[in-house]
């Protein structure tokens, strides 16, 4: 068990706590825990890369922890009415599609390697930023002065573009 893996497991443990905080409208605590989770993601990656602590387990568990946090937060924010449900549906649908494609590839004995694409990295950054904004808006009264609609459209657009890019790559892999 490496230090990055322990940090990642800690991030997984934070997920249900953040969800409970959102459900209880304890926005400040939810925001702080979300920031802690985000910072821990950067720290575990830095340690893994710079101190030769990469592991196969870490390669799998880190993206699972990231997705567990983001998907859970988007769903919970939609449930409590802090974001529109359509946005949560777009975010979750992308991840379900990717997981389904990977599973189908394995079932068909044609495993596909998923590598982060630039559009995917931009998408993740936009999703994190918007989730942080939604939490901060409720915790501290932060207001984007009408730009929140534009931010939601940006998140949805990047999410759909990322899904399309992965789907296109997967289809090329499966049909060659």
From TrEMBL:
EC number of the protein: 2.7.8.5
Membrane topology: Multi-pass membrane protein
Catalytic activity: a CDP-1,2-diacyl-sn-glycerol + sn-glycerol 3-phosphate = a 1,2-diacyl-sn-glycero-3-phospho-(1'-sn-glycero-3'-phosphate) + CMP + H(+)
Keywords assigned: Lipid biosynthesis, Lipid metabolism, Membrane, Phospholipid biosynthesis, Phospholipid metabolism, Transferase, Transmembrane, Transmembrane helix
Compartments where found: Membrane
Pathway this chain belongs to: Phospholipid metabolism; phosphatidylglycerol biosynthesis; phosphatidylglycerol from CDP-diacylglycerol: step 1/2; Lipid metabolism
Transmembrane segments: 6-23, 71-104, 125-144, 150-171
UniProt keyword Transferase, yes or no: yes
Superkingdom of this protein's organism: Bacteria
Family, similarity comment: Belongs to the CDP-alcohol phosphatidyltransferase class-I family.
Protein name, per record: CDP-diacylglycerol--glycerol-3-phosphate 3-phosphatidyltransferase
